[in-house]
């Protein structure tokens, strides 16, 4: 797409596909890329035809982290005034489900981008890590917070304090990865999952994602209350009537997102 310098952006049916495209820097996340990613996701969010989004990188690297070359000379005032890290808010604000399709290195900000996605599908070549400590900094795009919630304190501390990489088996075992597939299956698997999601009631999909996201932040009582009320509210939709009628009539439902 001519409008993007660091990404390839396309729609495939009901799926929005973003491919990180800075091959010479292993898809290092510079300011331009983060801005473009926010813009691409906002466009998919606004596009009624899109039901879910896939974010992927190259075979060698999903993303090897924030762009060290860009950050190397920055002072506290520089990163503070630039709100380094703050630009990701646009990425996570999008309500349509995001699937990360990860092959190769997902390090630092790259691992954190995967953690910002709702589903992480990884190839057997994927490697995850938070090597920030080796650079004299700490994770700044959610790594100390989302990673600790996703994998627990012991594993998060191990990764963040030692900076080591983990292979895909370990990443799946500890709950960072949803599915592991062969490298040649990676993109198809992610797109098929996105297509499947896009075929369901959009209202139900967004409500389900919102409720699971509440579980990351709220206590159990508050979360259960949110879930129950959201569940009940879906009985106000045509898609609930259609989904249940179709089941009873042994036919495929035709959801109209209302
Ligand atoms: N930033 C900039 N350039 C990078 C990065 C990066 N993160 N990663 C790789 N590159 C570049 C290399 O400099 C190299 O460029 P050149 O050819 O011009 O020398 C090119 O990509 C290829 O990389 P390598 O030659 O190193 O490839 P290898 O196969 O030998 O190694 C590795 C691959 C192991 C992935 C290695 O490149 C590596 O260790 N990269 C850095 C990984 C890292 O430390 N990432 C964490 C970055 S810090 C971060 O993400 C913090 C996020 C939060 C900040 C928030 C602040 C508020």
From TrEMBL:
InterPro entries reported for this sequence: ClpP/crotonase-like_dom_sf, Enoyl-CoA_hydra/iso, Enoyl-CoA_hydra_C
| Record field: catalytic activity | a 4-saturated-(3S)-3-hydroxyacyl-CoA = a (3E)-enoyl-CoA + H2O; a (3S)-3-hydroxyacyl-CoA = a (2E)-enoyl-CoA + H2O
Return one GO MF term.
Answer: enoyl-CoA hydratase activity
What GO biological process term is on the record, naming one?
fatty acid beta-oxidation
Domain of life assignment:
Bacteria
Coiled-coil region list? none
Q: Its Enzyme Commission number?
A: 4.2.1.17
Give UniProt keywords alphabetically: Fatty acid metabolism, Lipid metabolism, Lyase
The record's annotation in NCBIfam families points to: PRK05862.1
Purpose:
Could possibly oxidize fatty acids using specific components.
What is stated as this protein's family in its record?
A: Belongs to the enoyl-CoA hydratase/isomerase family.
What name appears for this protein in its UniProt entry? enoyl-CoA hydratase
Q: Which organism is it from?
A: Chenggangzhangella methanolivorans
